[in-house]
Amino acid sequence: MASPWSLSSALKGMFARPTIDDTTWDDLEDALISADFGPDITESVIDELRASVVKYRTTDPVDLKRMLRETLEERLAKLDPTLHLSNRPAVVLVVGVNGVGKTTTIGKFAKFLTNYGRTVVVGAADTFRAAAVEQLATWAERGGAEIVRPQQPGQDPASVAFQTVERAQREGIEIVLIDTAGRLQTKSGLMDELGKIRRVVEKQTEIAEVLLVLDATTGQNGLSQAEAFIQHAGVTGLVLTKLDGSAKGGFVLAVQEKTGIPIKLVGQGEGIGDLTGFTPHVFVQGLVG
Ligand code: GDP
């Protein structure tokens, strides 16, 4: 089955014609825009392809398809998607606004890690809503992870983060995933809270990764959300969720090029196993066909 974000049906007519002509370029532009590459990236991809077509003196749409694949893959591969989790414990802060799939991602990520034999503890540092803590506990359990909860509702999030890292150090747990609040109504309060968590944890150990979770279905809106976190939270990697429900495959390139931060994980479903590392080659195969 084709991925929902696949361009292949939009590109079908174009590659069925015998030669590359003006209509080919118009169709390609429409396909890239509707897949949410955004106008600048669409233009630069098309410019690059026009130059390649001239350079290799081809008029064959099959060559153009191959060049499109190569261009997208090369651009996506410019940033390194490796997760740096070799510290012991490796502390990962997970940030992002409510509703993007943060809780689910933490459960899936825990599972991803425990499948590789790693031990994991999750810190419920979004202490504001008791229901959120319970939901996180359910996902942590599914992921085979321990959890550190606030001792009372509204406990200082930084102290929960501290206790989680302390438990990992005491019990030799390898990976710490810290859930954080995502109420964007209080943007400066939220950024201060994240700043405090970082400062407290950094006194205990180095922070291995700060992962920003973004919902791929929000497209260009997700980009503006990302900015505040990138400016204030020291983001080291992106997690794109809900790619299974998105026709906006181009967002993947847009978000990476506009933020300059690598996509490290991709969520493609609501199940515990639906999180994978990001592999440009596999992604582009799904996108272009
Ligand atoms: P949070 O508020 O950021 O913690 O978001 P949740 O983890 O509670 O997720 C919000 C909704 O998005 C839930 O209904 C999840 O099942 C759903 N969700 C999360 N990740 C994915 C994904 O990769 N694909 C799909 N289709 N749904 C997802």
From TrEMBL:
<dbReference type="Pfam" id="PF00448">
    <property type="entry name" value="SRP54"/>
</dbReference>
<dbReference type="InterPro" id="IPR027417">
    <property type="entry name" value="P-loop_NTPase"/>
</dbReference>
<keyword id="KW-0963">Cytoplasm</keyword>
<dbReference type="InterPro" id="IPR003593">
    <property type="entry name" value="AAA+_ATPase"/>
</dbReference>
<keyword id="KW-0547">Nucleotide-binding</keyword>
<dbReference type="InterPro" id="IPR004390">
    <property type="entry name" value="SR_rcpt_FtsY"/>
</dbReference>
<feature type="binding site">
    <location>
        <begin position="96"/>
        <end position="103"/>
    </location>
    <ligand>
        <name>GTP</name>
    </ligand>
</feature>
<feature type="domain" description="Signal recognition particle SRP54 helical bundle">
    <location>
        <begin position="1"/>
        <end position="76"/>
    </location>
</feature>
<dbReference type="InterPro" id="IPR000897">
    <property type="entry name" value="SRP54_GTPase_dom"/>
</dbReference>
<keyword id="KW-0472">Membrane</keyword>
<dbReference type="Pfam" id="PF02881">
    <property type="entry name" value="SRP54_N"/>
</dbReference>
<feature type="binding site">
    <location>
        <begin position="241"/>
        <end position="244"/>
    </location>
    <ligand>
        <name>GTP</name>
    </ligand>
</feature>
<comment type="function">
    <text>Involved in targeting and insertion of nascent membrane proteins into the cytoplasmic membrane. Acts as a receptor for the complex formed by the signal recognition particle (SRP) and the ribosome-nascent chain (RNC).</text>
</comment>
<dbReference type="GO" id="GO:0005886">
    <property type="term" value="C:plasma membrane"/>
</dbReference>
<dbReference type="InterPro" id="IPR042101">
    <property type="entry name" value="SRP54_N_sf"/>
</dbReference>
<keyword id="KW-1003">Cell membrane</keyword>
<keyword id="KW-0675">Receptor</keyword>
<dbReference type="GO" id="GO:0003924">
    <property type="term" value="F:GTPase activity"/>
</dbReference>
<dbReference type="GO" id="GO:0005525">
    <property type="term" value="F:GTP binding"/>
</dbReference>
<dbReference type="GO" id="GO:0005737">
    <property type="term" value="C:cytoplasm"/>
</dbReference>
<protein>
    <recommendedName>
        <fullName>Signal recognition particle receptor FtsY</fullName>
        <ecNumber>3.6.5.4</ecNumber>
    </recommendedName>
</protein>
<feature type="domain" description="SRP54-type proteins GTP-binding">
    <location>
        <begin position="89"/>
        <end position="289"/>
    </location>
</feature>
<keyword id="KW-0342">GTP-binding</keyword>
<feature type="domain" description="AAA+ ATPase">
    <location>
        <begin position="88"/>
        <end position="265"/>
    </location>
</feature>
<dbReference type="GO" id="GO:0005047">
    <property type="term" value="F:signal recognition particle binding"/>
</dbReference>
<dbReference type="InterPro" id="IPR013822">
    <property type="entry name" value="Signal_recog_particl_SRP54_hlx"/>
</dbReference>
<keyword id="KW-0378">Hydrolase</keyword>
<dbReference type="InterPro" id="IPR036225">
    <property type="entry name" value="SRP/SRP_N"/>
</dbReference>
<comment type="similarity">
    <text>Belongs to the GTP-binding SRP family. FtsY subfamily.</text>
</comment>
<dbReference type="GO" id="GO:0006614">
    <property type="term" value="P:SRP-dependent cotranslational protein targeting to membrane"/>
</dbReference>
<comment type="subunit">
    <text>Part of the signal recognition particle protein translocation system, which is composed of SRP and FtsY.</text>
</comment>
<feature type="binding site">
    <location>
        <begin position="179"/>
        <end position="183"/>
    </location>
    <ligand>
        <name>GTP</name>
    </ligand>
</feature>
